[in-house]
Amino acid sequence: MIPVCRLEDLPKGESARVGTTPPIAVFHTDDGDLYAIDDTCSHQDASLSDGWLEGCLVECPLHAASFDLRTGRPTCLPARRPVRTHRVTVDDGLVHVHLVAEQDATEDAFEEDSAA
Amino acid sequence: MRTVTVVGASLSGLYAARELRAQGFDGRLVIVGEETHAPYDRPPLSKEYLTGRAPEEDLALTDAEEHAELDAEWLLGVRARSLDARGRTVVLGDGRTVSTDGVVVATGASARTLGGDRLAGVHTLRTLDDARALRAELTGGERRVVVVGGGFVGAETASSCAALGHTVTVVEAATLPLVPQLGPDMAAVCAALHRRNGTALVTGASVSALHGTTAVTAVELTDGRVLPADVVVVGIGAAPNTAWLAGSPLALNDGVLCDDGCATSLPQVVAVGDVARVGGTRAEHWTSATRQPRAAVTNLLAGRTVADARSVPYFWSDQYGVRLQFAGRRREGDSVRVTEGRIADGAPGEDGFLARYERAGRTTAVLAVARARSFTRARRELARDTRETREAHETHGVPA
Fold it and tell me: Which residues form the Rieske domain (chain A) (predicted)?
């Protein structure tokens, strides 16, 4: 569990970058939801926390690939592979990220498909 | 249309093929490519690939699954030699012909060279084969590298060579590199990146001769200087690949002339990417090559121009560990001011900066150096303002 920041320091529409290896991006959507995904675009080296947040989608600042924050899946090219998603909790006003185990994001997505 | 032939198997050709399928074309799809490689991404060639951070497989633009979905006939390793007068037959370099109902011209551009005899050690950097050859020369210990041309390919190559520990000199014919793209003030700031990172920058001089018998040994400049060199990289721009269209009815002038929707003078022929002059502009930008195909394919399938392919130009460049991003249409005489971050001693400050180009109180373009988040917003605003201006023109500009 990694502390990110205080909730009041991450207003709606904003994002924060956690300098873990690999780095994590945490988003606070306009609807008030918190999401965390791997920060590095699965297409090429760019930081998704610098991207454009719209609803539950973030658009990469370099080539405009878009990812669904809920699933980590790309919604358009040029990205073809998902990014990992991580659970976010707020404890006592402090935002925490719970890293998923080191596991291929593709396998994650596949398991979800099988369950559906 | 029963058959559509995409001539060119790089970024814009692949995106056109995808769009054809996405927009419901279920006929025969032929893709002709001069290179033997499946479509790959060129921007990393001068950066991650050259420095060895990205292996070749990272460059692939497609995978087996997509190949199956596209269901195309790939004719790779062969160039198109001509297009007949009606635009219905593509003749290939090996004499084969492809009869077709529609054509997407996506033949791209080729690196300009210095001409003269080919000496070992002299390279261009445009294709994967170019990059393989250059990379092989840069792995055998320290070399003296002269990069001819200070544009984006030249600057990125210089940056990669410096990162690999080589001694690098950039030779630029103009008084500063990148003035046409960035204007004089910001060009000066970006030129400082070379010097700050140990790369020598020679400006106002061009190459008068290459020395050497079989391999290059030195570069002689018009000002009389002689720069010893083991490796020379020529990055002096690219010329659109239109020679194969010379006998066709298509209008050519530094590219295939197209309307705002990538339509050519033949209704069943469209052009996209580096080879296309769309609405008067030929943009050699990655983003243009990926965006134009949607409108181009719509117009091809409609048989007339119903969609506009123009968008706010955008390009980026990674040099010496910082990312430059530029969007918009800067014109000569636009003023420029730094609105975030700062410039220190004529070079980008530690936290980068955002600069706005302005004319008559309106932002015409934005440049960010190591400032991606601010750039994302500024680029959005610019696209919105451009769209609103265009719509206002379309609504009110033409008297009824």
Answer: 2-97
